[in-house]
Amino acid sequence: AAGRMSIEVEALLQEAKESIEAAQNYRSELQLRLQGLVQARKQIRGSATQTREVLRQHFQELQGSVSRLLGERLAELLREVDAIEQESVRPLDDCQKLIENGVSTADELLREGEAALRCGIGEKDDKLGSFTKKALQIQLDSLPEVPSLVEVPCLSAQLDDSLLPGVKERIFSHGSVASHPPVQIDELVERPGGILVRWCRVDDDFVAQDYRLQYRRGAAGQYEEAYIGKETEFIVLHIDPHTDYLFRVCARGDGRREWSPWSIPQTACTTLAPHEWRVGSEGYSLSSRRNIALRNDMPPARAGVLYSSSPTYFCGQTLTFRWVCCHPRRVYLTLLLISPPGAVFVNGKEMTNQLPAVTVGSAVTFDMEVVSLLPVNNDISDGGNFKLRVTIGSGNREVVFDWVLDQGVDCLFFGCSFTYPGWKVLVF
């Protein structure tokens, strides 16, 4: 009975320990969810505050710009009124001066006539004769022409009453507030010396014309442009390993000029060293980052195979060669030959399928996966051969073949050989 009780106690103790552990795990999960709620609330509050500030600043700038434009237009119209007024009044001023001179002359003539009438008998004939002669010279029957009111300008302002309703309609439809950006980053995949960024539309009503991808190192600093185009994925190269980078994407709607709000920034880093060509290979010049190789003018006999600096390619990854510039002769890759027309040779045997012709901007990709371990001569004791399935892609075409090795490998070197100068290839 005592043994049975001891077993029951141990069972209860074990059950209690398991319950305590489950409670601890449950509490930890709840705390993680609380942290998630805090972050979610922080994102809502922070984005709302930022959006308010953006709206206020935008409409204040817009209001200032509209007020300035209206003021400039008003000043221009007032200048037109001043110009028309001055141009129109100038002839009237000239006419007024002419009439005023005539009035002054008539006053002087009247005074002389009245004086001639008051003079004595002895002087009257001379005075009246002089007065009459002067009156004839003045031509009292000739009067200056004064324009009628219908002939002179009558200024007015023509104002379009439809402006305000049109502006009102545009103002009421200007801007919008969205709870989510129309595009979000969907996946971040580490690549050797880079990050593959994939994004997607989350607003079905938003029709994207172009996408825009930016990134920056760490939480501070300025974002750098990485890509603008119609694709929904892009490999950002020249990424330092074991360093966090922030990525964000936005889109431009069909027929629109402005860009949408940015997606929620996502953090990613790569632990994979970048692909590099080996330094010091005769016949080849390398870029500063050693990921671009140029076949120089060295004679073909002295230019051998250019290999990678280390075995940085792993099965399951995609290895890409992009031709920056080309020569019209064939290019050799390790165990593979691709001629410019697109013929593919594997271990000296031409494959049935053919890749597109290699031109400037062409990209050839290699994807490898472990298929199986094959026994040699059906004898397992002899060890196994390592079988890889290689997929070579270029454009919209693919060539697939199985590559059998004597032993398993974790990582691979890669290499290429150009018979003639003028080839330049980027590897990533």
From TrEMBL:
It comes from the Eukaryota. One of its GO terms (molecular function) is cytokine binding. It is found in: Cytoplasm. Keywords: Coiled coil, Cytoplasm. Gene3D superfamilies: Immunoglobulins (2.60.40.10). Residues 181-274 form the Fibronectin type-III domain. One of its GO terms (cellular component) is receptor complex. Belongs to the cytokine receptor-like factor 3 family. May play a role in the negative regulation of cell cycle progression. This is Cytokine receptor-like factor 3. It comes from Lepisosteus oculatus (Spotted gar).
